[in-house]
Amino acid sequence: MADRIKLTGLQVDDFVAQGDKFALDKLKKLPLLPQAIEKFYEVGIDRWLYCMNMSMSVRCGPRQYSSLHSMLREACEVLDMAEPELYVANNPFPNAWAGGVERPYITIRSSLVDTLSDEQLMHLIGHELGHIKADHVLYFSVGQVLMPLLEMLGRRTLGLGDVATYGLVLAYYEWMRQAEFTADRAGLLVSQDLETSLMANLALTAGPSRLREEQSLDAFREQAQAYQDAGPLDQMGKVVVFLLMGHSYTHPMPVHRAQHLERWAKSGDYDALLSKFKVGV
Description:
Blueprint: H1 18-28, H2 32-43, H3 45-55, E1 58-59, H4 66-79, E2 85-89, E3 96-99, E4 105-109, H5 110-115, H6 118-133, H7 137-144, H8 146-153, H9 155-158, H10 162-191, H11 194-206, H12 217-228, H13 232-244, H14 254-266, H15 269-278
Parallel strand pairs: 2-4
Antiparallel strand pairs: 1-2, 3-4
Helix pairs in contact: 1-10, 2-8, 4-6, 6-10, 6-11, 10-14, 11-14, 12-14
């Protein structure tokens, strides 16, 4: 595509989703979180996770997967942020994640490189960079080992019971889901093309397929709208399913993500943000 607009001076508040901000504020107020974070640093878990990732993935650079490394550099220039490390890991199940509180990194599974086009990969890399820029990584990393940490700390030491523990877990999962909306916005700010970002969402939802040329974004939008417009009994069923299982999901349902991103793109806030940085380009 044409040269992307460089968002020099971009701040997290320029693109953070209100649900993300609200959920994180609530999470920070829970009494158990400071102890969990303190133990996270005390034990050195951030270093362990970094070393584990480095030992099982291939680091990208000018001489190793240079195409991916070039995408990372361009995405960092767009979002005006320091360049984290980028890794590729062999795995048939498409996924990517950001980690490393002190030494940030992004890991992309090999199957995802095969699933997405170059432009869709730019959205994906922007998404993961959004997690880093928005300081999500600390809370992601704590949550990755949250249950073992709660076991390690022990309720008697903390003076908290099951209600406090369960409340933290529920608040954490809710924030994780909301954080994805912020990261999706960062992905769009890098791709700077709504269709590309939505197709990346569709491709991630459907997974690798030899029939991917038959994917239809319009049909996916219609599916999302049909889910949104479900009748009363179906709406009640969605609530029941969420209470039984969905409350512990780490990501929003894909149709919700697509709708949320499209609403933001068409709200005027996205265009206003690009226009703010386009002056003088």
